[in-house]
Automatic annotation (TrEMBL):
One of its GO terms (molecular function) is DNA binding. Keywords: DNA-binding. InterPro entries: Cro/C1-type_HTH (IPR001387), Lambda_DNA-bd_dom_sf (IPR010982), MJ0586 (IPR004451). CDD domains: HTH_XRE. The keyword DNA-binding applies. Signal peptide: none annotated. It holds the Pfam family HTH_3. Residues 35-69 are annotated as: Disordered. This is Transcriptional regulator, XRE family. The keyword DNA-binding applies. Residues 83-137 form the HTH cro/C1-type domain.
Length: 163
């Protein structure tokens, strides 16, 4: 059996603890992070009012989660320098590039100085206008294969605050 927090193989006794209302089976080291399963704290009988928010027409505003091993496009390093060089090769000023992509010149300047990261639609307009590729395909190398076949544990997701 594995600890549900750290993922270590439990040798000997396992402990059932409550952590934020969830009952977990953990090893001896991680048992300090919760209270014993038999000891429950009293729960308030007050019921909070529920307000319904209308669903947005555009869907969820939350970005999609990056799954392990997922290939994603990331902005290249020194994207501002690449944009500046491509603009200068075409002998365009900031104002000319801005009018071509229908954005403000100050936005173009800030992107070139890398003060802001261009949103996808602006990035695509810049790429099209300057015949430039600002993204590169990258895989997620943070996840090791040995960890994936053992299953994801709570400790992989949550950072534990020490008091």
């Amino acid at each position: 059996m594995q600890c549900e927090i750290c993922g270590a193989e439990i040798r000997g006794d396992s402990f059932k603890v409550n952590i934020d209302g969830s009952e977990l089976t953990v090893c001896g080291r991680c048992s300090q992070y919760g209270t014993a399963a038999g000891k429950r704290s009293p729960v308030s009988k007050k019921i909070a009012p529920v307000s319904r928010r209308p669903a947005s027409a555009t869907g969820s505003s939350r970005p999609p989660r990056k799954a392990p091993g997922m290939i994603v496009d990331e902005l290249i390093d020194e994207y501002g320098q690449a944009i500046k060089e491509a603009r200068e090769r075409k002998k365009w000023s900031h104002d000319q590039l801005a009018s071509k992509i229908k954005e403000k010149a100050t936005l173009v300047k800030k992107i070139e100085r890398e003060e802001i990261v261009p949103e996808d639609d602006v990035r695509q307009k810049i790429e099209k206008a300057l015949d430039l590729k600002l993204t590169e395909r990258t895989g997620d190398n943070d996840w090791s294969g040995e960890r994936l076949n053992r299953g994801t544990t709570l400790g992989d997701i949550v950072t534990i605050k020490r008091k």
